[in-house]
Amino acid sequence: MNIQYRLYLLLATVGFAFYMAAAQHHNHWTIPKHEVRAVWLTTLEGLDWPLTKAQSPNTAERQKQELCTMLDRLKAAGINTVLLQTRLRATVIYPSTIEQWDACLTGTYGRAPGYDPLAFAIAECHKRGMEIQAWVVAIPIGKWNSPGCQAIRRLHPGLVRKIGTNGYMDPANPATAKHIAAVCSEITRRYDIDGIHLDYIRYPETWPSPRNANDRAVRQRSITAIVAAVNDSVKRIKSWVKLSCAAIGKHAPLPRRDSKGWDALYKGNQEAQAWLRTGLVDQIYPMIYFSGDDFYPFMADWGESAPYPGAVVAGIAAYRLARGEGDWPLIEVERQMNVARSLGVGVALFRARFLLDDTKGLYGFMKDSFSPTLSLIPQGGQTSSGRPEAPHNLAIKKTQYGQAILRWDTAGQTTFNIYASKSYPVDTADSRNLIAVNLKNNSFPLTLAGQQMHFAVTANDRYGRESAAARTGEPAKPKNTIPSNGLISLPNDAEDTGFILLKDMAGRTVAILPCRNGHADASRISPGYYAVYTINAKGEIRRIGFRAKMRDGQ
């Protein structure tokens, strides 16, 4: 753990200034091409969405438009992953054969809104190139006499434990794992979802404390068994669907920093880091809703535990910016997000509303400083081999209205990414060249009129693997060049040339090269710009122009 503390000390002293300067001047900051930028979109009591109850065709359309407006703004802010609360308290937002409709959609439990909100949300997210995971709240099932809790009590007598006024599914009862897995299987089978996100997959903090270490181990195995059941059921249906879990933000006490009795491993009984190591989950979202030395050492610990890029996505407490929720200054959230990025960790904001309301300037920071470029979802650990076939026959086609469209042929890939640059070849590793991600169609309208642009297109498969690039055109060759092989061809009127003289831009002689068969070999000359002279048999010198020595690949 020494690395954790060295990092922490750095952050506590000079690191803050570095990260903030980098955030504010992103031209000097490497914006990752692959990075999870997520947001939790809460449907419980309509906290984020919906604001309008769907009680008629008109209000249902208004509810749908609310979501579209939110997704447009989330995309503009750089968000590429939406965690949509799909199972709330043993109630759901889609037509299920297992659990009933939640009241957040219509104001009435069990009442359908007149459309399928989950199918609609998936289609709208994919239309915008964003991934969407179904956020499933696992253990708590609401007030004891709420419709969801009553339904589970009828279906599984003896399964539900009452603590205070609330009901909880007993993690140790095998029926809990079976039921939650059934809900996740139904979602996976029926919908084109990108992931299942398990939340509150832990023992409630109000549950009686474990009596001893053996009791704690039993609880840990019980929670892990639920995760394993979901993993098995989901991956059997669609192997590419991600399984992610929200974890308490502090995994365990650190040698020099106590978790203060609130951690994933001992309090929540979540073996979260082990889930990652063993491949039981694809991602962990640690909810590190703290500041100062309750954030940075534990964030470093999560970063060190990540077995591959995208495995850890830091839960960032955007809600803490609000009055009554902590009243944090924006600079605290900015710092946490930049530190997470420096550790190769993604970010997820809780909740969407605090981002969209631009609380203390959060939306502006996200859009203009943190996410000035598009990003792709990291491939992660779902599969380690294989790569989709690259698009082919890429070309720019003129339309009948004098506009242009980029078209390509496909080999059945799911989505496509578009890159553009004034230089050739387009650097597909540079996030600044990304102009569109996760397109469904094999065409793209060009709006970069009046600019000499080059384009590249890559394909993605459902595992997030990216193909090689197909590129438009060839580079415009500069005049008066020396090819990368260094062979200088003499002009037709210089047959009597015996030597070539090269001078740099300061007028210094760089080389005198012998000529044979109308050519001179400049392969050992470094790339750059040179004045080129011929020297004939009489010793007469004549300049034939300035020439650039090209680099390989140009």
Written overview of the protein:
The protein has about 550 residues and is α/β, with parallel strands linked by helices. It has helices at about 1-25, 55-75, 115-125, 145-155, 175-190, 215-235, 270-280, 295-305, 330-340, 350-355, 360-370, and strands spanning about 35-40, 80-85, 90, 100, 130-135, 140-145, 160-165, 165-170, 195-200, 240-250, 285, 315, 345-350, 390-400, 405-410, 415-420, 435-440, 445, 455-460, 470, 480, 485-490, 495-505, 510-515, 520, 530-535, 540-550. Helix 1 (about 1-25) crosses helix 8 (about 295-305) and helix 1 (about 1-25) packs across helix 9 (about 330-340). The radius of gyration is 29 Å and the shape is elongated. The chain starts with a helix and ends in a 5-residue tail after the last strand.
Structure characteristics:
single chain, 554 residues, alpha/beta, TIM Barrel, Immunoglobulin-like, 3 domains, 7-stranded mixed beta sheet, 27% helix, 25% strand, disordered N terminus
CATH level 1 class label of the largest domain: Alpha Beta
The largest pleated sheet is described as: 8 strands, parallel
Report the CATH architecture of the largest domain. Alpha-Beta Barrel
CA-CA gap between termini: 46 Å
The total of helices stands at 11
In the CATH hierarchy, what is the superfamily of the largest domain? Glycosidases
Strand order of the largest sheet: 11-10-9-5-2-1-13-12
Number of domains: 3
Strand % is: 25-35%
Uncertain segments are 1-6, 8-29
* Number of beta strands: 27
What is the typical, i.e. mean, pLDDT?
89
- Radius of gyration from CA coordinates: 29 Å
**In the CATH scheme, what's the topology name of the largest domain?**
TIM Barrel
- Helix residue percentage: 25-40%
What would you call the structural class?
alpha/beta
Shape: elongated
